[in-house]
Write a structure and sequence with these properties.
By secondary structure, the chain is α+β, with helices and mostly antiparallel strands. A hairpin with a 5-residue loop joins strand 7 and strand 8. The N and C termini lie far apart (about 150 Å).
Length: about 300
C-alpha cells in the first residue's frame, strides 16, 4: 500500500512537471510571443488583441521560448533638459510620455525588451522637445492652457514622425510637460512678467465687473423710475376719484349741515366707546354732549 502511494505521488509530480513544461497561461493584460529556435512568426502571438488570453500548449525549452509583453499603459518620465525658446529665453523642462506595446512581434523584432523601448522613447522625447524653440516663453507660462497644449501637441507629433520610420510595435498615447524651471538669472524677470500678466488680468476683471455693475444699476434705476411714475400716476387717479367722491358727499352734507354734524358725532362715539373704557370728561365737550341730551329725558321722568 505504501509503495502504491509513493508510485502515485511520483507519477503525479512527473505529470505536473510535464504539464508545466508544455503549457503556459497568458493573462488578459499581456501578449505572449512563442519563438521556435529563436524564430518568431505572426501566428505565434498569443492574446495579441487583449481578448483571447488563457491556457496554451508549447514545446518545452529549448525548442520554444515564451516572451511576455505587458499591454497596459506606461508612463515614461525624462530628466530635466535645458531648452531655448523662440525669444531667446532659456528654460529647464521635464517632460513625460505615455505609451504601450500594441504589436508584440514588431516590438520583439525591433527592441526585444521594455528597457530598450524606454531607452528609444527617451532619446526621441529629448529630440522632440527641441520644438519648444518655436514657442515664446510667455506661451509656455501663460495661464491659458491652450498655448501649453499646442506645445505638447507639437512635441507629440514630432515624436510620432520620428517613430514612423520603422514598425516598433508601440503606440504613443499622450505627452505632457511636467515641470518648467528657469535659470536663476532670469527667474526674477519671469516673475515680474508673471506679476504684470496677473495684474492685467485683475484689472480686466475689475473693469468687466464695474461695467456689469453699472449696467445693473442703470437697469435698476430705470425700473425704479418706471415704478415710481406708475405709482404717482395711480395715486393721482385715486386722489382724483377720492376728491370726486368727497365733492359729492360735501354737496349732500352742505344741504343738511346739522344732520351731517350729528352723524359725525355718532361715528366718533361709536369708535371711542366700542370697548369697556372709563372716561372722566366734561359732558359738554362734543360729541359727548349727546350723552347728556340722551340722559336728560330720563332725569325728568325720575324727578316726576
Amino acid at each position: 500500500m505504501f509503495k502504491f502511494i509513493k508510485l502515485f505521488l511520483a507519477t503525479a509530480v512527473v505529470f505536473l512537471l510535464i504539464a508545466y513544461m508544455v503549457t503556459f497561461t497568458v493573462p488578459f493584460n499581456e501578449t505572449a510571443l512563442v519563438t521556435t529556435f529563436g524564430k518568431a512568426e505572426r501566428s505565434a502571438l498569443k492574446n495579441p488583441d487583449g481578448r483571447s488570453g488563457g491556457l496554451f500548449l508549447r514545446f518545452p525549452w529549448p525548442i520554444q521560448k515564451i516572451h511576455r509583453f505587458d499591454r497596459r499603459l506606461r508612463i515614461l518620465s525624462d530628466r530635466l533638459e535645458q531648452q531655448e525658446t523662440s525669444d531667446r529665453q532659456v528654460v529647464v523642462v521635464q517632460a513625460y510620455v505615455t505609451w504601450r506595446i500594441v504589436d508584440g512581434l514588431d516590438f520583439y523584432r525591433s527592441l526585444r525588451t521594455s528597457d530598450e523601448g524606454e531607452r528609444l522613447l527617451r532619446d526621441r522625447l529629448r529630440t522632440a522637445c527641441s520644438v519648444l524653440g518655436d514657442f515664446r516663453l510667455d506661451q509656455l507660462i501663460s495661464p491659458e492652457e491652450s498655448d501649453l497644449d499646442l506645445a505638447e501637441a507639437a512635441i507629440l507629433a514630432r515624436m510620432k514622425d520620428d517613430l514612423a520610420d520603422q514598425s516598433w510595435g508601440i503606440e504613443l498615447q499622450s505627452m505632457g510637460i511636467k515641470r518648467i524651471l528657469f535659470p536663476e538669472r532670469i527667474t526674477e524677470a519671469v516673475f515680474q512678467r508673471m506679476r504684470q500678466t496677473r495684474q492685467r488680468m485683475a484689472q480686466r476683471a475689475r473693469s468687466e465687473g464695474e461695467a456689469i455693475a453699472k449696467g445693473i444699476m442703470a437697469k435698476a434705476a430705470g425700473d425704479s423710475e418706471r415704478i415710481m411714475a406708475y405709482a404717482r400716476r395711480r395715486a393721482q387717479e385715486i386722489r382724483s376719484e377720492g376728491d370726486g367722491a368727497a365733492a359729492e358727499y360735501a354737496a349732500v352734507f352742505g344741504e343738511h349741515q346739522d344732520f351731517a354734524l350729528y352723524l359725525r358725532q355718532l361715528e366718533t362715539l361709536q369708535r371711542t366707546l366700542s370697548h369697556n373704557t372709563t372716561f372722566i370728561l366734561d359732558s359738554g365737550i362734543a360729541p359727548y354732549g349727546l350723552l347728556e341730551e340722551a340722559l336728560a329725558p330720563k332725569k325728568r321722568t325720575d324727578s316726576r
